[in-house]
Write a structure and sequence with these properties.
The complex is a heterodimer of chains A (416) and B (116). Chain A is built from 19 helices and two strands. Chain A has helices at residues 12-35, 38-59, 65-87, 95-98, 116-123, 130-141, 146-152, 157-173, 186-205, 216-232, 237-250, 275-291, 296-309, 318-331, 335-349, 351-359, 368-380, 384-397, 401-415; strands spanning 257-258, 261-262. Chain A starts with 11 loop residues before the first helix and ends with a helix. Chain B has two helices and six strands; from the N terminus they run βαββββαβ. The chains are: A mainly alpha (416), B alpha+beta (116). At the A-B interface, loops of A face α2 of B.
């Protein structure tokens, strides 16, 4: 796993900003672990970054900025708790001061244990709602401000602040632990973490809001956090699978839109795909295959690897894609997987076989992608009136403007 | 150690299960109660009579003003509860999972305020 190149320029504010981005989650996680209090951890982490802003322009950043920030923040927390414990002798956190590991010179602190894994599992605890999990993960591990998260999910800032405050209060009151779950719980708990990260990615990739085509910042943050997770759990193939799936999806982003209109996979200019992301995604998929422990994200990544391996749409190995969807359907028999499988069948065996497979899928009549796929197959079978109806339904159901524009173009093409 | 209220909720008016199932359920709950005691998590537990046996008392005005029936006019009512000690929410959730299976009802886990 390559960590992003740290190209620190001369602008000290930018240096701090970049360090903030990379180190915030690690600093907060270390402090939460040490003091057991998220609010305190966030407060003193912020103070440490303010201190860095003040000092680094003169002295330059220390060799281990993350360790410096953690130590600075930790000392602030201890000062604060000492003050509080003299006021309130019963303060539970006073106990924390006794096992203090001394006033270490920040510059000599060579490494800080990485506690982010624990914090990810806390943020994505199943006792918290999915919205709360997403918000907490972006706030505590991504270092996004409340305003940024609110903007990303199109809720007002006060509502997002309330959601975050409530979630943090629940973690504290209900004693949600900071812990990597034990082995017997790990598969289901990890699935929850991955689902949260994938949700953040998808919201950036094809947002459901009517006003934005794409929010690259959310996708980038999801990839960054998944890279962190992959670094922390290198033996979990599903984490690598999710990372590969994100990278191979992200790689196609430059070719996905033309003047605000969605360009679907067969029509994309493949020379515009990001070759380095494709190469990294393929490497990860091969690494997953070698482990022989397939899971839903790895299989979806493999589908994307087949797509991105084809020099042209005509050269796509649909036989393999259909087989992968069979395998995925065996693991997760959902209507959406059945829909994707039907699309692959159409490419492998012809539009009539695809339509038959598609119409055997129940419960997706009000899903835009189902209607769009149905419209396309009806069009290919020359059933134009039915195709036009299906396109109209799909346009109505789609929430994304670029996708709507694409479907309207298709509809107009039929009516000519 | 944190304490949690594990309350069992059911929809009033639903037909009770047949007698043999009831007996199985009582036996399962008794076994679960023994386990909770053995694990040192037990604080208190009890089953409640139906909500229509409840009386609401309002003493805010000095005298007791009583109202017949449960506080919340809801179909969902608490039928019983455990109070347990557990090191964290994960441990409480595990107790609730086993309690829910034993009593065949949904269980709400709610933390007590910390001892002062």
């Amino acid at each position: 796993m390559n960590s992003p190149e740290r190209s620190v320029g001369d602008d000290p504010a930018r240096v701090v900003e970049q360090v903030f981005r990379e180190e915030y989650g690690r600093v907060v996680a270390a402090l939460v672990r040490r003091f057991g209090d998220i609010e305190l951890a966030e407060d003193v982490a912020q103070e440490a970054f303010v201190e860095a802003m003040r000092r680094w322009p003169g002295s330059g950043p220390p060799p281990k900025p993350g360790a410096w920030l953690t130590t600075t923040a930790r000392n602030r927390a201890i000062d604060r708790l000492r003050r509080e414990s003299t006021r309130d002798a019963r303060h539970a956190q006073a106990a924390m001061l006794i096992d203090d590991d001394g006033d270490v010179d920040p510059m000599s602190l060579s490494s800080v244990p990485d506690e982010r894994l624990r914090l990810i599992f806390t943020c994505c605890h199943p006792a918290l709602g999915r919205d709360a999990q997403v918000a907490l993960t972006l706030r505590l591990l991504g270092g996004l401000t409340t305003a940024e998260i609110a903007r990303a999910f199109l809720v007002d800032e006060a509502a997002m602040a309330k959601r975050l405050t409530r979630s943090k209060a629940k973690i504290k009151a209900a004693h949600i632990p900071y812990r990597v779950p034990p082995d017997h719980e790990l598969p289901s708990r990890l699935a929850g973490v991955l689902a949260t990260l994938y949700l953040v990615f998808n919201e950036g990739y094809l947002p459901s809001s009517p006003d934005t085509v794409v929010r690259t910042d959310l996708s980038a943050e999801a990839i960054r956090l998944t890279r962190v997770l992959a670094g922390l759990m290198p033996d979990e193939p599903e984490v690598l699978g999710l990372l590969a799936l994100m990278l191979l999806t992200e790689a196609r982003r430059p070719a996905r839109f033309a003047e605000g209109v969605l360009v679907t996979l067969p029509d994309q200019d493949r020379s515009r795909w990001d070759a380095s992301l494709v190469a990294e995604g393929h490497r990860l998929v091969r690494a997953c295959l070698r482990r022989g422990r397939p899971g839903p994200y790895q299989i979806q990544a493999a589908v994307n690897a087949v797509h991105t391996d084809a020099a042209s749409a005509e050269n796509t190995d649909w036989r393999q894609i259909a087989a992968l969807y069979d395998q995925l359907f065996a693991l997760t028999p959902t209507p959406v997987v059945a829909l994707n499988r039907a699309v692959a069948v159409a490419e492998r065996d012809g539009a009539a076989a695809g339509l038959a497979a598609l119409e055997a899928v129940d419960g997706l009549a009000s899903y835009h992608a189902y209607q769009a796929a149905r419209a396309d197959l009806l069009r290919r079978l020359g059933r134009e009136a039915e195709a036009a109806d299906a396109y109209r339904i799909a346009v109505e159901l789609s929430a994304n403007p670029a996708e709507r524009a694409y479907l309207e173009e298709r509809l107009a093409g039929l009516e000519e | 150690m944190p304490k949690y209220l594990l309350s069992v909720w059911s929809t009033e008016g639903e037909a009770p299960p047949p007698e043999d199932e009831m007996q199985e359920m009582f036996a399962a709950v008794a076994r679960f109660n023994d386990e909770v005691r053995e694990e040192g998590a037990w604080v208190f537990a009890g089953g409640l009579h139906p909500a229509d046996t409840a009386t609401v008392v309002d003493g805010r005005g000095g005298e007791a003003v009583t109202t017949d029936g449960p506080f919340a006019e809801s179909k969902e009512q608490m039928g019983g509860f455990w109070v347990v000690e557990a090191p964290d929410l994960d441990a409480a959730i595990d107790l609730a999972r086993r309690g829910s299976a034993a009593c065949r009802g949904q269980v709400e886990v709610r933390p007590f305020q910390d001892d002062v």
